[in-house]
């Protein structure tokens, strides 16, 4: 597994939650290894190297941290696209959300999430949760090799490469 500069893609529309998550991850040695986008369409643009991300360097992230409730395209839509793509389906996706609704948990797992974390409200508990996320998904987990030959997928979001 390549531990590239952009190890984690954080998909979070709330700027305060995004900063808190980046701070927690930086405390566990991931400074400069988190790319943040603020909605589901930007996440797919990043992963498929479209629009503002056509010339991004590096390989795909080794982990996607994904909020559920976002504008334009929600987390379930992003998750379904990632897990339905020959190019992206092996990227681990951890839902990181404030929702503890059983229907959200079921929808996320049905769509293929690798893990579901309800954001703790206490900062110390959030730091601890992020420590465990980093330890397992970045340091222990072995990701599958990335697919190099992509084909165009026609989806409800346009042609995806």
Q: Cα-atom Rg, whole angstroms? A: 15 Å
Distance between the termini: 23 Å
Mean pLDDT, nearest integer? 84
Strand order of the largest sheet: 2-1-3-4-5
Q: How is the biggest beta sheet arranged? A: 5 strands, parallel
> Which structural class is indicated by helix and strand composition?
alpha/beta
Fraction of residues in H or I helices? 25-40%
Account of the protein in words:
The chain has 161 residues and is α/β, with parallel strands linked by helices. Helix content is 36%, strand content 17%. It has a five-stranded parallel beta sheet with strand order 2-1-3-4-5, sandwiched between helices. Strand 6 and strand 7 form a beta hairpin. Helix 2 packs parallel to helix 3. The chain is globular, with a radius of gyration of 15 Å. It starts with 7 loop residues before the first strand and ends with a strand. 31% of the residues are buried.
Task: List the SSEs and their pairings.
Layout: E1 8-11, H1 15-26, E2 34-37, H2 40-47, E3 63-66, H3 75-84, E4 93-97, H4 102-111, E5 115-118, H5 123-140, E6 153-155, E7 158-160
Parallel strand pairs: 1-2, 1-3, 3-4, 4-5
Antiparallel strand pairs: 6-7
Helix pairs in contact: 2-3
């Amino acid at each position: 597994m390549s531990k590239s500069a952009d190890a984690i893609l954080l998909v979070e529309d709330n700027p305060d939650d995004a900063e808190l998550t980046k701070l927690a991850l930086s405390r566990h040695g991931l400074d400069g290894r988190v790319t943040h986008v603020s909605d589901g369409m930007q996440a797919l643009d990043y992963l498929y190297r479209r629009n503002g991300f056509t010339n991004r360097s590096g390989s795909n992230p080794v982990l996607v941290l994904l909020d559920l409730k976002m504008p334009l395209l929600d987390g379930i839509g992003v998750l379904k696209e990632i897990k339905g793509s020959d190019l992206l389906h092996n990227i681990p996706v951890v839902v990181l959300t404030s929702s503890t609704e059983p229907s959200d948990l079921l929808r996320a797992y049905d769509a293929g999430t690798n893990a579901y974390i309800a954001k703790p409200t206490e900062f110390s508990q959030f730091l601890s949760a992020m420590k465990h996320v980093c330890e397992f998904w970045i340091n222990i987990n072995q990701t599958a090799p990335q697919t190099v030959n992509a084909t165009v997928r026609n989806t409800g979001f346009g042609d995806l490469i």
